[in-house]
Amino acid sequence: MALDSAKKAEIIAKYGRNENDTGSSEVQIALLTTRIAELTEHLKVFKKDHASRLGLLKLVGQRRRLMKYFKRTNKDGYQALVDSLGIRDNI
């Protein structure tokens, strides 16, 4: 269920500040959002996969913490990121 390298490189190119930027908050939030979407689709098919459900909850919590930090440090960038990813602003 991990992201393949081509999809990961595409996300990094879109949200990164430069081509080598893999650790900024924007990139991390975008990568987590993609993984969350894939896990959500997986759990729609395999409803009894509780191990993956726990992993999903951990990813959501990690993304929430990153979004909270990013909103506190860069409010305009946060709003643009939330709009481009299509996720709710509930922080």
UniProtKB/TrEMBL annotation:
The keyword Ribosomal protein is assigned to this record: yes
One family name in Pfam for this protein: Ribosomal_S15
Matching SUPFAM superfamilies: S15/NS1 RNA-binding domain
Any Gene Ontology CC annotation: cytosolic small ribosomal subunit
An example molecular function term from Gene Ontology annotations: rRNA binding
Keyword field: Ribonucleoprotein, Ribosomal protein, RNA-binding, rRNA-binding
Transmembrane segments: none
GO terms under biological process: translation
Record has RNA-binding as a keyword: yes
Superkingdom: Bacteria
InterPro entries in UniProt: Ribosomal_uS15, Ribosomal_uS15_bac-type, uS15_NS1_RNA-bd_sf
Assembly and oligomerization: Part of the 30S ribosomal subunit. Forms a bridge to the 50S subunit in the 70S ribosome, contacting the 23S rRNA.
Protein purpose: Forms an intersubunit bridge (bridge B4) with the 23S rRNA of the 50S subunit in the ribosome. One of the primary rRNA binding proteins, it binds directly to 16S rRNA where it helps nucleate assembly of the platform of the 30S subunit by binding and bridging several RNA helices of the 16S rRNA.
Family membership: Belongs to the universal ribosomal protein uS15 family.
Protein name as it appears in the record: Small ribosomal subunit protein uS15
Source organism per UniProt: Sulfurimonas marina
